[in-house]
Amino acid sequence: MTKPMTSASGVILFAHGSRDPLWRLPIDAVAERMRSQHPDLPVAVAFLELTEPDLPSTVEALMKQGVAHVRIVPMFLGVGRHAREDLPELVHGLTEAYPQMSFELLPAIGEHPAMTALMADIAAGTAQLDT
Known about the structure:
131 residues, alpha/beta, Rossmann fold, four-stranded parallel beta sheet, 19% strand
């Protein structure tokens, strides 16, 4: 089987997951906002546990769309065991399972200085709504 020749990049917003189906709504809202702001950028969500889809099936779906480079954004406020150990292990397995693709694992979203500043502004009541 010939590997497809692609150069497209995509983004996966990766979150923990929950038994409560409402828990995922903020993650889905981020994905929808990204899709509306960047219509040519494939954006998907994936979850570690308790919620579908999982990371491997999301990567498979993006691959079938012609995505060759995947940026994985951990939607965690802090770096616990899942972000520090479980996710890198999952990504290592994906690099072995999909050698035709490249994976970029970003730091947890909560560690980004812009997120820290935004959370501080929200808590202080000074955040500007950008709708």
